[in-house]
Design a protein that fits this description.
Layout (H helix, E strand, L loop, with lengths): L1 E3 L6 E3 L1 H15 L13 E6 L10 H19 L3 E3 L3 E2 L4 H10 L3 H19 L9 E2 L3 H16 L3 E11 L4 E3 L4 E2 L2 E2 L7 E10 L5 H6 L10 H11 L2 E10 L6 E5 L10 E5 L3 H8 L3 H16 L2 H4 L8 E9 L6 E7 L10 E4 L5 H10 L7 E2 L5 H4 L8 E2 L10 H14 L3 E6 L5 E2 L1 E2 L9 E4 L3 E4 L29 H4 E3 L6 E4 L3 E2 L8 H4 L12 H7 L4 E5 L5 H15 L12 E4 L2 E3 L2 E2 L10 H8 L1 H10 L7 E2 L5 H15 L15 H19 L3 H21 L6 H14 L4 H10 L24 E7 L2 E8 L5 H9 L2 H7 L4 E7 L3 E6 L2
Parallel strand pairs: 3-4, 3-28, 5-6, 14-16, 28-29, 30-32, 33-36
Antiparallel strand pairs: 1-2, 7-8, 7-11, 9-10, 11-21, 12-13, 12-15, 12-20, 14-17, 15-16, 18-19, 22-27, 23-24, 23-26, 25-26, 30-31, 33-34, 35-36
Helix pairs in contact: 1-24, 2-19, 3-4, 18-19, 19-20, 20-22, 20-24, 21-22, 21-23, 22-23, 23-24
This protein binds one RNA strand of 86 nucleotides through helix 7, strand 13, strand 17, helix 11 and strand 32.
RNA sequence: GCCCGAGUGGCGGAAUUGGCAGACGCAGCGGACUUAAAAUCCGCGGCCGAAAGGCGUUGCGGGUUCGAGUCCCGCCUCGGGCACCA
């Protein structure tokens, strides 16, 4: 594997041979088993977001897993028992689509891809504990999806309701709010429409406050961006609910408002056009109103969501010829139905205050409704300017509120409304309950049986898992109802409660259910009696470092946090937040844009690995920049990485001192570099500045080359110390090279199981430092001084320096700033 | 429209609390070795200058400071998130 050139020059580093050599040895040694009995080391749990088996691994995987491997290997070197698992997020539409397109069995297609990815993943040499692998499409896994579902069902956290849901006409299935991106289906970019359907939901809104408030714990540990996105998504607002009596209706209508202080400024009332309330109000009015309303509703319904997104859309609506009574002044407010009020936010009805809300003002101007200012500002009158004044000011035209500012008025009016039973303080959320049922085949069956007599009956837990029927003979093509409905033998069962003929629920769960708790299953993946071992959870949680793409900033991370809280309430997990630290790696691009076949800028990972080797690709990904930044493959140099690795590797063959030689006797200059680099790498890794860690390691390699060629020589113990340190540090980025170096240095495998060398603080202290002398902030001179020099000594030394005197040119000195030992700034008087 | 984040050489990027801007690498240029090339090793790399030396410089304009890539104010550009949420 090592060849010596004919002239006896530099050895050639045979990348392919080194990879082929170590792979079977590592398989044999299985160095990364975690949680072995009797292991007393402290724990760390490093988690990479698991892949979806869509084909072979791609460049994005290469970056993500190279990054995730660093903290795992770092903590191993630092003496921790590290849990670093991997598995496959294996349910989902692509398997089904492949089945429809090519007639493949979704299960066979999925397991084939998993086998391919698994083989690639092994070659990629991440420090995974291969004993813990799981696939979410295994019945042994989704069994526990069903179990958790039933726990939630029992507690009212899983429920079915009819609602206007997001519908993707292409995927022919419903979508959660989180899966609609800008009015388009997250998966296929088809414009999403609405459909009235009865669907399964998880009551995530029950946890809205905790999901929001517990983020305080994550401050500084998660990217701010992700925290902000989650906060916006939950969208908590505070205000009041106010009851309006409606003429000709027994029950008052409640509205939600964040501005109860502007109640005296309400001049009309609006209900969501697509709400039941609007339909009822129209029906109880005249036939003419009913007709106008029906026509309007039809128009609204045919407008796709994507068109409703335009903010400058003109306001439309229809007058219902009904009136609501303002509880604070008994004024009659005309009621309109309009699409700009949403049926699923608040109560689907609003009081309209056109002077202080732009949307209400736009509507008032379109329908020629009065505008009454109740908050005095120094801005133009909204009635004439067309610009609402939403800001603070003193209340006017508002009875008992006159003269108060916004905050005081809100407090006072809420107290008054609460006193006479006409309203109360209230909170509202943008977050909606999580729609989890899907009308597709390749997912977890919902463990519910529908009985004509007993209604919804949970499948008894001892009969779990409800296994998916074979896809053989099923029509998997999207048709708006679940393919499982066609599996007659599977579908028809007897009711667990009364024994009569009944049918299974035919929907399957959103695959985000699978990934919401996989980090728990990794703790005891082979247990067949529980979802996960509670004692193991106590030991391993929380996840110390979670690594994954920012694409999951809302969806997966919100859902997983929700699941964790539910399981916390069940007493099964010990922590409120599952992921203590989060790192979002960037994406891999080519020529400034995301790689894709259609763009023709796809770089195949397998080609790159073939050309440059695993280590060079990993190193390139890491060295390209900070882990959270995107990597443009056009800007980086895998061959440069390969060159560096070969340079480091060659050094391991040049060391002539023996294993165990006393480093203390080594060359001081090189030893100082070694220890400074070890120290810097340590700090850089623990602050996730992996690219800097690589740069420092390169500096060490350069220093060793110099020491061997023109310094202390290859036999000096300091050279062995430095090359060993290089191998150990490289094991985090380039495991094959590091392992081979380690062996050439005379050690047994595995370098990953050694420990990070201890930094000698004495070697971090220089025996002289360069002091910069500035005059008015400009560098004029550099002096070599002792690091322990005092301020007075330094000042005197500098001022008596000939070059400094010359530069000063006799100028009067105003002040001298001394920052010993590195800087002196002389300020001459002007 | 609202809310974040970022602008540093030809390129990717580095720079504790404000203290030598450009670490490390890529591409480029020059040299050594070689019959030659590859590989390897060494050096250069903002501008003027042969050199000594001088000048300039972190998107733009101001400010604070002995001193600003870093802090404050106002712009410009790019990227991301949200988008009728009452």
């Amino acid at each position: 594997m090592t060849e010596v050139t004919p002239e006896g020059g530099a050895e050639r580093y045979d990348v392919a041979a080194v990879q082929e050599k170590w792979l079977p040895i590592w398989d044999e040694l299985a160095p990364f088993k975690s949680g072995q009995p009797g292991d007393t080391r402290p724990k760390k749990y490093v988690l990479d977001m698991f892949p979806y088996p869509s084909g072979d691994l791609h460049m994005g995987h290469a970056e993500a897993y190279a990054i995730g491997d660093i903290p795992a290997r770092y903590w191993m070197l630092k003496g921790y028992d590290v849990l670093h698992p991997i598995g496959w997020d294996a349910f989902g539409l692509p398997a089904e689509n492949a089945a429809i397109k090519r007639g493949a069995d979704p299960a066979a297609w999925t397991y084939e891809n998993i086998a391919t990815q698994k083989a690639s993943m092994r070659r990629y040499a991440c420090s995974f504990d291969w004993d813990r692998v799981l696939n979410t499409c295994d019945p042994e896994y989704y069994h526990w999806n069903q179990w958790i579902f039933l726990q939630m069902f029992e507690r009212g956290l899983a429920y079915r309701k009819p609602s206007n849901v997001n519908w993707c006409p292409n995927c022919q299935t419903v979508l959660a709010n989180e899966q609609v991106v800008g009015g388009l289906c997250e998966r296929c970019d088809t414009a999403v429409t609405k459909k009235k359907l009865t669907q399964w939901y998880f009551r995530i809104t029950d946890y809205a406050d905790r999901l929001l408030d517990d983020m305080e714990q994550l401050e500084g540990q998660w990217p701010d961006k992700v925290l902000t996105m989650q906060r916006n998504w939950i969208g908590r607002s505070t205000g009041a609910e106010v009851n309006f009596v409606v003429e000709g209706r027994d029950e008052p209508i409640t509205v939600y408002t964040t501005r109860p202080d502007t109640l005296f400024g309400a001049t009309f009332f609006v209900v969501a056009a697509d709400s039941d309330l609007a339909a009822e109000l129209a029906a109880d009015a005249s036939p003419q109103v009913q007709e106008a309303f029906d026509a309007y509703l039809e128009e609204v319904k045919t407008t796709a969501d994507i068109d409703r997104l335009a903010t400058d859309r003109p306001k439309t609506g229809v007058f219902l010829n009904r009136f609501a009574i303002n509880p604070v002044n008994d004024e009659r407010l005309p009621i309109y139905a309009a699409e700009y009020v949403l049926s699923d936010y608040g109560t689907g009805a609003i009081m309209a205050v056109p002077a202080h809300d732009q949307r209400d003002l736009d509507f008032a101007r379109a329908f020629d409704l009065p505008v009454r200012v109740v908050v005095a500002t120094d801005l133009d009158d909204p009635a004439t300017s067309g610009v609402a004044t939403p800001g603070d000011g003193l209340l006017i035209n508002s009875g008992s509120l006159d003269g108060l500012n916004k905050a005081d008025a809100i407090a006072k009016i809420i107290a008054e409304l609460a006193g006479n039973g006409r309203g109360k303080a209230a909170k509202n959320y943008r977050l909606r309950d999580w729609l989890i049922s899907r009308q597709r085949y390749w997912g977890t069956p919902i463990p519910i049986i529908h009985c004509p007599d007993c209604g919804m009956v949970p499948v008894p837990v001892d009969q779990l898992p409800v296994k998916l029927p074979s896809s053989q003979g099923l029509d998997l093509s999207p048709k708006g109802t679940s393919p499982l409905g066609g599996a007659t033998d599977w579908l028809n069962v007897s009711c667990p409660s009364c024994g009569k003929d009944a049918q299974r629920d035919t929907d399957t769960m959103d695959t985000f259910v699978d990934s919401s708790w996989y980090f728990l299953r990794f703790l005891s993946p082979r247990r067949d009696d529980v979802a996960f071992d509670v004692e193991q959870a106590k030991h391993w949680l929380p996840v110390d470092q979670y690594v994954g793409g920012v694409t999951h900033a809302i969806l997966h991370l919100l859902y997983a946090r929700f699941f964790n809280k539910v399981l916390f309430d069940l007493g099964l997990v010990p922590v409120v937040e599952p992921f203590a630290r989060l790192l979002n790696q960037g994406m891999v691009q080519m020529d400034g844009s995301a790689m894709s076949k259609s763009r023709g800028n796809l770089v195949r990972l397998s080609d790159e690995l073939e050309k440059h080797g695993v280590d060079a690709i990993r190193l390139t990904m890491i060295f390209a920049g900070p882990p959270e930044d995107d990597v443009d493959w056009a800007d980086v140099s895998p061959s440069g990485s390969a060159k560096f690795l070969a340079r480091a590797w060659r050094l391991s063959g040049e060391v002539t001192s023996a294993v165990g030689v006393d480093f203390a006797a080594g060359d001081l200059t090189l030893r100082r570099v070694t220890h400074r680099v070890l120290n810097d790498v340590d700090v850089a890794i623990s602050t996730s500045r992996f690219n800097v860690a690589v740069a420092r390691t390169m500096e060490l390699v350069n220093a060793i080359r110099k020491a061997v060629d023109s310094g202390c020589g290859a036999a000096d113990p300091a050279v062995r110390e430095a090359v060993e340190a290089t191998a150990i540090m490289l094991s985090m980025f380039a495991p094959y090279t590091a392992e081979d170096m380690w062996e050439r240095l005379g050690h047994q495998p595995c370098v990953a199981l050694t420990s990070f060398p201890t930094v000698d603080p004495a070697l971090l202290i220089q025996d002289s430092v360069i002091c910069v002398v500035q005059i008015s902030g400009k560098v004029r001179e550099r002096l070599e001084v002792s690091p322990s020099i005092t301020a007075d000594e330094l000042k005197e030394l500098v001022l008596s320096n000939e070059a400094v005197q010359k530069a000063l040119d006799g100028a009067q000195i105003k002040t001298v700033i001394v920052r010993e030992p590195k800087l002196v700034n002389i300020v001459p008087s002007a």
